[in-house]
Amino acid sequence: MLYYSGHTRRIGDVDDGSTVTDFLPAERARGITIQSAAITFNWPPEANKTEDSRIIKAIQKQELPRSALSHRINLIDTPGHADFTFEVRRSLRILDGAVCVLDGVAGVEAQTEQVWNQAADWKIPRIAYVNKLDREGAAFGQTVREIGVRLKGWPAVCQIPWFEGGKGKFCGIVDVINLCGMKYEAGGDGKSIERYNLSELETKEPSLAEELRKARAALVELLSEHDEIMVDAFLEADEDHLAITPAQLLASVRRCLMSGDGTVIPVFAGASFRNIGVQPVLDAVDDLLPSPEERPFAEVSIGESTAGLDELLEGKMVAPNSAGSKPGKKIEAAVPAMDKMLKGCALAFKVVNDARKGMLVYIRVYSGTIDRNALLYNTNLKQSERATNLLRMYANESVPVQSLEAGQIGVIAGSKYARTGDTLIVCNTNKATPPAPLDKLQLRPIHVPPPVFFASIEPNSLKDEKDMHDKLNLLLREDPSLHITQDEDTGQTLISGMGELHLEIARDRLVGDLRANATMGKIAIGYRETLTQTSSSHTKIFDSSARGDVKGKSGCTAIVDSNNPDMPDEDYHDNALRHEQDQNVVIVEAPSLDKQGRPLTDDAISLPGHLSLGDVQSAFTNGALAALARGPAFSYPMRNVKVALTIDPAQHIFGSETSYASLTAAARLATISAFREVHSAGGSALMEPVMNVNIAVDDASMGSIIQDISSSRGGQIVALGDNEEAEAEEQNSARDIDVAKIYAPKDPFEFGTSSSIGQQINKPRTVKAKVPLKEMVGYLKHLRSMTGGRGTFTMSVDRFERMTGQREKALVAELRGGT
Predict the structure, then answer these.
(1) Which of 209, 317, 527, 568 could make an S-S bridge to 201, C-beta 3.0–4.6 Å?
(2) What pLDDT does 13 receive?
(3) Residues 6+ away with beta carbon under 8 Å from 104
(4) Which residue ranges make up the annotated binding site for GTP?
(5) What residue numbers does the annotated binding site cover?
(6) Using CA atoms, how far apart are residues 433 and 429, in angstroms rounded to an integer?
(7) d(CA 21, CA 72)
(8) Domains along the chain?
(9) Across the strands, what pairs with 413?
């Protein structure tokens, strides 16, 4: 793409480590993408400025495609490995469209489905590009049918592959929309293309021309089912599929794409390694994918209210007004129009530490303009700072700019505070804090998945400890899917991540790039602890006279029990607060107070003036959550636990001595005390993460993989990919996709019909299983040795399951240093 747009003078190669967007040493060494890279280029490369107005008018009249005019494209290259799924998530969050690159041999792989569904969450218009059609075993038709079954959409085949003589080598593509063939020079750089119209194809390749007619008819029929305007155009063309103009087809495909629901999936073909089919995909990006102005306005929230950014700017947003509202009744108040007050609004979606430029914060501007030296307010951190240096990135190179406008992607260099997911705004005032309610404005955040693997990390010497923690903080700001925790008892630092490769890369980044003097221990599993019994009532009084770290004096009563999410809660008082987190439930009761914190009886005591009932409930909740973070047996976080806390002002409140911090400390002490009682009575147990595992293997290896998972690793096989009817029924539950109705050209060596999907010898099958995470450590190397290097797998957390019997005994012995 960069070569054809004129941005580079050579074509990079992943195998040689010479690509532009994979510039990290670890990326070039492994031949994979680890972190997303942004780059900006124009396509077509040179616009004829004197003819811009004429071209625009021709495009508006549908006489020319949109790709006739040069467009600025912000490209983000994202990883494909499952360990770096968060890198994909935060990039998808700010995109307007996406090209999904598929392997013509492997078809739709497990990780492809996951990323496709993530894009669906943001309703991003997507097109599919089937790559590697030059390789032996490539099957375009089979991949098209898999797109329908696995991605739950109707494939709109816009190109079909051109094999010389029908079964020869892959030499070009045939454009279904423009009814022409494009034959590429063998071994060339992709710029020398011979074009053939339909009549010339009928002479040169009669069977290919006949397939082109079928493909055009199928495309028109498919679009007619989802676009009424195409139906009218088809009738006006006297029901002649070939008479529909290319501009009408492109406009129809574009209308079907704009919703982002993935009902219609345009499919393109090529072989990027042979430089075949890349320029038509770039044309499709211009012709089909939306510009920022054509996307729905970003979703914003102020407090608990959400609306589109346009509604906020125009004064159409309403927010709940708690002032004077009665219990159970919500009063809504209009938020004033903010179009004159809000100058710019952007989302920080990525942070990178650069040795020369400092912290680089990648932003996507959603409204207005962000100017150089503008005063940015971070609504998440409540901090203000100047955007002293604005850049436009070209992978690891950059160009200074004076401003970034809505829809653009750029970088703020040298930011002190911004993190991934923070909302940055600029107001038309010189004040450090914007006026309400803009100070609470937040764009929809980026979800960070929970980590599943962790490893210990230790400084090489005591003097290196501070430096190691400073560099760990830099690493965390770069990658929020990493977590750092400190073991209070041993003082050990633990780093958690999404997978083995993720932690390996984090270690290389910390030790190699940031040059921290530290050593990482072997990878371990993030277990959980739970309770099997109920504790008695535990009351603890926290007094700062005995402990000087927190000032104040407070008390709390706690009872802990196991929590069954499927069982309804017991009856609690009307004023009880219920907080649920990580399948733990914290319930805070004040039986002697009403919802406003006033005494229910004459002999009851009220709260002091500096504390409200909400303050006490919030403090107790935070104290309980702090206790739940460390279990009584092995300091793993607690799960499936119910904590019931009670506040009695007569026993637990000590006038002005009672502070918010002391209430939190008292709740924590009472909860820990209850945990220890249950544990000492043998009422605690360990829970281990059980993973959803999708393993892609060929037929020859399938039996040994199933046996290994079910017997050696204690896993449970859920489904097999060769059960096509059950798999299709499961995956098409949301949308009825009939494989028999999907048009796909016949592959060169395909026999039979679409019912023969996957009958090639080396075609990957999918084994779906649920396996304890402990058994999956190091599984990739084992899988590759069993499958001759062809097997791959992806996994995600399914649930945490209580350990029993021999597995628990073995783990306890291991944790206690036994054998």
Answers:
(1) 209
(2) 67
(3) 130, 131, 132, 133, 135, 138, 139, 140, 143, 269, 271
(4) 77-81, 131-134
(5) 77-81, 131-134
(6) 9
(7) 18
(8) 97-288 (3.40.50.300), 299-443 (2.40.30.10), 453-525 (3.30.70.870), 533-682 (3.30.230.10), 689-815 (3.30.70.240)
(9) 360
